[in-house]
Amino acid sequence: MPKKEITHLKQELLDAVTILRRDVDQIASFPLGWQSISVQLTKILRETPLPLLKKVVPSPLLHPLYSPVFKSQLPADRLKWILHYGWKIKSSQNKTVIDCFDQTATPLDLARWLDQVLLVANEEELSIEDVIKFPRNKEAAHSDPSLNRKVLALRSGLVLKTGNIEIGPVPLALAVVGAYVVDRIDEMLKGRS
Fold it and tell me: Cα separation of 114 and 140, whole Å?
């Protein structure tokens, strides 16, 4: 690939990461930004025929999830316990971000990473890829019939409250994935795998 094209693709990736970082940082005050998080994650990780990340980093490796995953069929007080005590909490610019990726474990290739179960809603399992696709699942051009029962399960799931703002499980999961992807791409582009 010519150097000029690589430079252009790297800049496109950096632009997408900048937008993703902004939307993740604003999720607590602007929960509707989760749809933009989904768009950027799709562009970076799922775009066909080749995701933007793989155009810049041909064999990206990403860390696996910790257990447990988000489990929205649990009572609200139990879910808060899992989020607070089950995963590491890190602070980014005075904002608390839930870190659910085990950075001490052996990283996974992109396909295996996307296939990990991130969220369970009423016994329906959603992978990272399902959660990224979720906002686009509308009745029309972007409809994915395989997600329909999962969408119904999520709609009956609980909503987390942060101050006066309610954040559903998918926006929260997208923000968690987005925060990790931003940090991981920064590491990859600086040469720290």
Answer: 24
Do residues 17 and 182 touch, judged by C-beta distance below 8 A?
yes
Q: Which of 55, 89, 72, 112 is nearest to 176 (CA)?
A: 89
Whole-structure pTM value: 0.79
Contacts of 100 (CB under 8 A, 6+ apart): 65, 66, 69, 87, 118, 176, 180
CA-based nearest residue to 172, from 155, 190, 160: 160
Q: What is the pLDDT of residue 191?
A: 80
CA atoms of 85 and 62, how far apart (whole Å): 23
81-121 pLDDT tens trace? 334 333 344 444 444 445 678 888 999 999 999 999 887 66
